[in-house]
Structures are given as structure tokens and as C-alpha cells.
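[scheduler] slot 2 assigned
[scheduler] job type: sequence-to-structure, two independent chains
[scheduler] chain ordering preserved from manifest
[runner] begin chain α
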Amino acid sequence: MSISLSPSVQKVQDALKVLGFSIQVVELQTTTRTSADAALAVGCKVEQIAKSLVFQARISHRPILVIASGPNRVNEERIAGLISEPIDKADADFVRQHTGFVIGGVP
């Protein structure tokens, strides 16, 4: 059975296949912009959701991807300490440029 995916979701499916994973990505028809939205859409607790957050290193301007459990807040000072430079929240253009996805849609 072939499932039609949007182009951005197909990119994720293709990347998983290249890496040797036989996982079938499921595209939801409801919003999953927040951890609470995602938990509701798949029928689990917010604590079971992983969220992807993109920051920008202030000096090198490199993207920093942080994966956190749904209800948890990221300690930006700790991340800055780990990478040895301060970080800022990435704006929408930076996120799209470095991930190919919009804020709220980074897999």
C-alpha cells in the first residue's frame, strides 16, 4: 500500500530509508505545533512527546538542535555552556534555511 505524503514529510521518510530504517512515517491531519497538540493527535501524554527546538549559536551562527520531552523547558544557559558560546532562539527564516522546515514542523 502506497501512502501519499506531503513533500516535507516525504523528505523525512526518504532520509529514514537511506539510513536503513523501515519505519513508516504517518502524516497527521491535525495540528501538532505544540507538544499538547501532538499528544492529543496521537493519544498519548505530553510527557511522551519529543519536541525539536532550534537555536542559533551567537558567535559561530551554527544551528543547535535540542530534543526535549514535551512539558520540559530547555535551560539555554546550560546549552550555551555545553557548546562554549551563547545561544539565541532561532527566527523562522533561520530555522527554514537550516532544516528545510517551518517552526513547529521540524521533525
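[runner] end chain α
[runner] begin chain β
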Amino acid sequence: MKVVEYVAPLGIDGRRRVRHTRFEAKVTEFMVQYEIFVKGKWLPVVRYDTSHGYAHRDLMHADGRKEKIKLLFKDLNICLTYAENDLRANWKNYREKFLKEVGRR
């Protein structure tokens, strides 16, 4: 079993946190999360993971709510790739929406 874990910068105030476990070439669990530094602390904005026994996306809101959306891919390798690609393509949109919510608080 191999565990890969890293944190990479994303924009001026964000980072992408990744952790996945593989057995041979097969992903057995994963977590990909976009976080931003707001008001002196790191806050999760969107997270893809396999907690709760299935692959899903949690979209966080500034008021603490989470929107959970099940990923429909059966292969966790594909889910992990999808999550990483989604964050690369859409982190700016997630950031803008979250910061607007923070501004309303």
C-alpha cells in the first residue's frame, strides 16, 4: 500500500491539499481539498473524498453548511482524476463564491 500526501499553493491565498492511498495501481481512498486563508485561518472551500464509504464532493459555505454531491464514477482512480482536474479548472470560481459569502457575514 502506498500513501501519497502533499500540499501545493493555488493562487495568492489558497492551497490544494491531496492525500490518496493506492494498492498497486488502484486508488483505495482519496481526499482532494481546496482551502483559502481568510481572517487568519485556513478554511476548506471544496473537498472531494471517500469518507462515509463513497466518493463525493462537499461544497462548503461560509456559514458552515455543506452541500454533499455523490460522484457517480465507480472507479476511484477516475474520481481522483476528476477531483484534481475540477480544482485546477474551477478553483477561481469556488474562491470567488466563498469570499462573497464571507463578506456577507
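[runner] end chain β
[qc] chain β: The chain is about 30% helix and 50% strand.
[scheduler] slot 2 released
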